[in-house]
Amino acid sequence: LSKAIDRLEKRLGCRLFARSTRRVVATAEGERFIAHARRIVDDLASADTDLSPARHEPVTPASRRKSEATA
C-alpha cells in the first residue's frame, strides 16, 4: 500500500500524507484527494444501487474481476 501511495504522490506531484515514525496524517492536499475519492466511491455505490435489480448483490471489486475474467 505504501508503494502505491508513493507512486500516486509522485504522479500528482504533491504529498498526500505527512509521515513520522509514530503516525501518518493527511496533508491539506491529501484531505482534498480523500474528499474526491469518497465522492467517487459514493457515486459508484449509488449507480450500483440504482442500476442493479434488487435481487442481485451489489457489485464489488472482487465480483467485478470474476465476471471480467469469464467474459
Offer a quick outline of the entry.
The chain has helices at 2-12, 28-51, 61-70; strands at residues 17-19, 24-26. The chain is mainly alpha-helical and 71 residues long.
How is this structure best described in words?
The chain has a two-stranded antiparallel sheet. The protein has helices at residues 2-12, 28-51, 61-70, and strands at residues 17-19, 24-26. The chain contains three helices and two strands; from the N terminus they run H-E-E-H-H. It is elongated, with a radius of gyration of 17 Å. The protein is mainly alpha-helical and 71 residues long.
The arrangement of helices and strands along the chain is HEEHH
In the sheet with the most strands, the strands line up as 1-2
Let me know the number of strands. 2
Number of helices: 3
What integer is the average pLDDT? Answer: 85
- The first-to-last residue Cα distance is 29 Å
List strands and helices in order, with pairings.
Layout: H1 2-12, E1 17-19, E2 24-26, H2 28-51, H3 61-70
Salient structural properties:
two-stranded antiparallel sheet; mainly alpha; elongated; 71 residues; 8% strand; 2 strands; 63% helix
